[in-house]
Amino acid sequence: MQISGKFLETLRSRLSIAEIVGEKVKLTRKGRNFTGLCPFHHEKTPSFTVNEEKEFYHCFGCGAHGDAIRFLMEAHKYPFVEAVKELSRRAGLSLPQEMTEKEEAPQKDLAPLYQALQEASHWFHKNLFLEKNGEALRYIERRGLTTEILKKFNLGFAPEGNSLEKHLKDKGFGVETLLEVGLLAQSENGRGPYERFRKRIMFPIQDAQGRVIAFGGRLLEKGEPKYLNSPETPLFSKGKLLYGYFQAKEKSNSDPLIIVEGYMDVISLQQAGFKGAVAPLGTALTENHILSAWRLSSEPILCFDGDIAGLKAAARAAERVLPLLKPGYSLRFVFLPQGEDPDSLIQKGDFFQTTLTQAYSLLDALWVFLTHGKSFKTPEQKAALQKQCALWTQTIQNTDIRKNYHYAFKDLFYKNVVGKKANVQPSTTVRKKSVNFLFIHEHLLLAILINHPTLLDEASDDFASLEFKEPCLHDLRNMILHFYADGTFGKMTMKDYLMQQGFEKEVETILSSHVLIHGSFALPSASIEEAREGWREIFNRIQNSLGKKDLKAAQEHLAEEMSQEAWHRLKALKKNILLQY
């Protein structure tokens, strides 16, 4: 019976060969592979290995080798067609209707297509370094990319004209081949084919084996579309591939797999040492993307912008993964601060790494999507929330996981909406990320002055009047004022001065990413205007916060004592708070 090679490739990509083999063989993970006792011959020492990335098993003892289909045929004695039907059922795929009585289908020779794309990739890369294309290289340099990373991803440049077509024709590739792989596009006005990519930085797109199968191109000048991908071809389907996947296979087991938005995010993260960075190719995250990602990590981290569009994209990804969940495999979610992307956070030290450590679990993220900015005061609102929880839970195919999500949502509902904890098992709660904002604000004020000491010319009086909640900060504040007053300013940095005076631990805390991520105006790179505005805003917040606490204490004191002095104290505090507004 004839079954297309493309269908079989899709089928394999939707399955975990380790899971299929593991039904018969007890497997143990060793690095990126799994090992166990071979089911095809008697052995006492494991020589049987399963490679999830390359989708095959191999025995070094007896030579048995194959994919998931072959394993069902050999280990379970399935006929070929029945093995395909069984695996299609597990993967949720419908069998193709166009079948013949032959088991082997003649396959088209795809080698010329791969060769044409590989040759084009080499040609684009050489163009990047030509003097006449200097604007392209200058763009790359402005983005801070190294020669090493350019080679690793083989970035290139497509000039104007038809020079690529001429080069490839000289290499023996015909127009039909170049049209088929998307390097040429058919003109609509009858003038013949033209080169698809012109005046663009070129990003070769590789499959899991490292073969170039398509390109993405970014315009150097203003225009639309800013990014342009190859069209769908016999080699390329954008809904199945993750950019950077081939490079991400080099990551260690301890490196996270981070799914970001675009080419430059992937390359910047890889250059910064995050070897597991990948990205969809201009499309929303698909089931195939998730299944591919799971081959490299059981819990990939999805990294989204913290705006409305980012939340919506994250919610779509969360819904898409629910039917695919299996024990030990899920997604985590990170939301970047407004106006930031992975590249900008990397430039600010260890901010990005800190952000990754604060990733939400899938359950936490789903609860955020359900409840963010919404009110659940009326019975109808609460019922709507319960209904959505039930709808999402019902889409989970795995029985055990579905049961656990049912209890987890029920527990969250009674704990966070009704106001009492449900008496259900198992119990799961959202991880609370409490932030002491007074602590953050006090440390931000100090960070601003350490990084921008000239502000003391106008802020020293307010700074001297502050009552810090941490006693050690009073000593640090006094040392900062001493630095400002005794003429040390200009001879050395305030940071170095404070470190010399024994405040290493305090300075390290104040200038840590946990503090600075709450205010970019406190960074050394901020302008003096940004630092000044940030100082005034944070100072007023601290004063307001302290004033309200004093007000509450004065009200309690008046209730206890009812004296004239207590009454005047309360009136004075109220007046001060009103003046701050």
Description:
- The strands form four sheets. The chain has a six-stranded mixed β-sheet with strand order 12-14-13-15-16-17, with helices on both faces. The chain has a five-stranded antiparallel β-sheet with strand order 1-2-3-4-5.
- It has 26 helices and 17 strands.
- The longest helix is centred in the last third of the chain and has 34 residues, at 528-561.
- The model is unreliable at 99-105, 420-435 and 573-581 (pLDDT under 50).
- 29% of the residues are buried.
- The chain has 581 residues and is of the alpha+beta class.
* Low-confidence parts: 99-105, 420-435, 573-581
The fraction of residues in strands falls at: 5-15%
Largest sheet, in brief, is: 6 strands, mixed
Basic shape? globular
- Quickly give the structural class: alpha+beta
**Physical arrangement of strands within the biggest beta sheet:** 12-14-13-15-16-17
How many E strands?
A: 17
Number of helical runs? 26
How much helical structure, as a percent, in the residues? 40-55%
Let me know the average pLDDT. 83
| C-alpha end-to-end distance | 79 Å
- From the alpha carbons, calculate the radius of gyration and give it in angstroms: 31 Å
